[in-house]
Structure formats: C-alpha cells, structure tokens
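#onboarding

Welcome to the new folks! Below is a worked example of what a typical request in this channel looks like: someone posts a single protein sequence, and someone else replies with the predicted structure as tokens. Don't worry about understanding the tokens yet, we'll cover that in week two.

Example request:
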Amino acid sequence: MIEYPFETIPEAGTPQQVAPGIFWLRMPLPFRLNHINLWLLEDGDGWTLVDTGMAMDEARQAWDQIIDQHLGGKPIKRIIVTHFHSDHAGLAGWLTDRFAAQLWMSDLEWRRTRLLAGGPDPAWSEDVLSFFHQAGCPGDMIAETHSLWSGYNERMSPTPDLHTTLSDGMTFEIGRQSWQVLIGRGHAPEHVSLYCAELDVLIAGDQVLPRISPNISLFPGDGGDNPLGDFLVTTASFRAQLPNTTLVLPSHNEPFYGLHFRLDQLAAHHDERLDAMAGVCDKPATAYGVARQSFSPDLDGLQSSLAVTETLAHLNHLITLGRINRQTRDDGVWVHAAA
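Example response:
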C-alpha cells in the first residue's frame, strides 16, 4: 500500500523539511496539474537544488521569497535538472545566472532542453503538422496543437552553454551523503533520478508518481521508438534495485512510502491500457480514433494532444509485441489493426 507521511503541503516559497538536510519546495504551474515539487538539499557552505520550476512570474516570485527568507545567506551552488520538460528545466538558466551555479544534467536531456529553449523553426513545424496528420487528427486539432506547442520556449529561460554530465550509476556527494544516479527512460529520453542509500531516499522526478501515471508519449521525430517499452524496463529495474522502505520524493503529488506497490500498479496500468487499445484495433483504427475511445472526452487542447502521443506510445509497443500492425493509407494516415 501507499502511505503519505506528511500531513501538510508547503505553500509556494516556503520550504518544508522531509529528511535530514532535504527540504520540499512547491511551485505553481498554469495547468490542471497545478504544481511541481522541487528539492533543496543542504550542501556544506551552500545548497544543491533538484529541478527549478517553470519560467513564469509566480515561480520567480516564490524564488525571491525563498532566497530572501530561507537560504540562510548561503548560495545555491549546484542545480540538478531531472529532465528537459519546462516545469523542471524552465528556470535553470535564470537560477544559474543568479547564483553562478553549476548545471548538472544527463547529456540527452541537456541537448533537448537547448533545442526547445531556442524556439520553433520551420522544420519543427513541418514535423509537428505531419506527425498529427499521420495520427489521424482533424485539421482544427492539428492547428491548435501546433499553436500550443509553438509557445513552449516561452516557458523556458535560456539554457546554459555548459553542464556537468550525469550518467547511470554515477555517484557523488551532496553534503555528507553519497547519491547515486539512476537513469530512467520512457517519460523522457534520459531522465535522472537520485538515490541516497544512507537516508533511503529516492528523488524520483517524474519517473515514479504516486497518484497519477507519468505521461509516456511518442513525439514528432521519435519514429519507431518504443518509449513505453523503455518505461516498463525502467520500472522493473527500479523495483529490483531499490528497497520498498524507500521514501520517494516525486515531482508531483506528495512524498510517499510503498515504492514496490506503486511500481507494480504502474506496470499493471499499462498492461490494462495495452489490452484495451489492442481491443479497439480489432477494427482498423487511427491513433486519434483509439485515443478518443481510451481517454476522457473533457480534455483541453494540450491534454488532447498528449492523449494522442500517449496512445501512439502504446500502439508502438503493441507493434513491437507483434499484437497489431500499422499500415499507411493513401492520404498518409496510419491505420492500426490486429496482427
């Protein structure tokens, strides 16, 4: 079972201690999922920060309050970003400039952050329009998705030119504790989680969330990749490597105990999704058609586009498993059917 050890949730700009030397910060987001958790760790004569929040005024104001009232005059020396998504990496450039801090990321996540922070270009637009057409989406949804996605860089500060590269199995010290890098795949290309055996604490990022399933999507440019297969491999790896006693610090919702139970739940959830989507493909169906039958009808524009990309991740995995196949119609739209 899952247990939540903390009765209170910190307000924006006010840290809450969750383990020796580890403080929980919560920053606002402008979405239905309206928050992200960040982690501030005591690190000798300064601080190490894990993730930054999105580049938006409300988050900057919360950071001003933290800096003025809660850092004890010590600088943030190192900023670790778990992955490229704007709620995690959006203020990385702003904070590294403010503190002359070092940026630590895995290499693929740094490259993706640099690419997206630079803003859309014609080739990117062509990829997005073509991708959602191939998925079978109607023209008005394709146009809305392109418009929404084109503003991604507005939620990012410029990404620093240099970074320290994090790799799987790497260990380093924060304060007096040793932390190990665990690279996960599926939600992002090279997602960083951090585990401290001495404290039995996992900073999970978006790789393990207690109340919602991490979005596992196939995106424009991913081609024949299998992000869901990668995610399930990572899930099994985490279960084998980490004890069930671990305190999990996720990027959304609340810290929790019950890691193995939650990993099993996530694997079972995707098994159910795969079975359901394979059933829809008993009759030939586009990705958009499968998404319409698999997700709630009351999604907003952004969520609707992510429902299609998540559906495509499941369909690609079903293709890999040999349960369905994919053909391309004369109009360029993909059609999926039982193998």
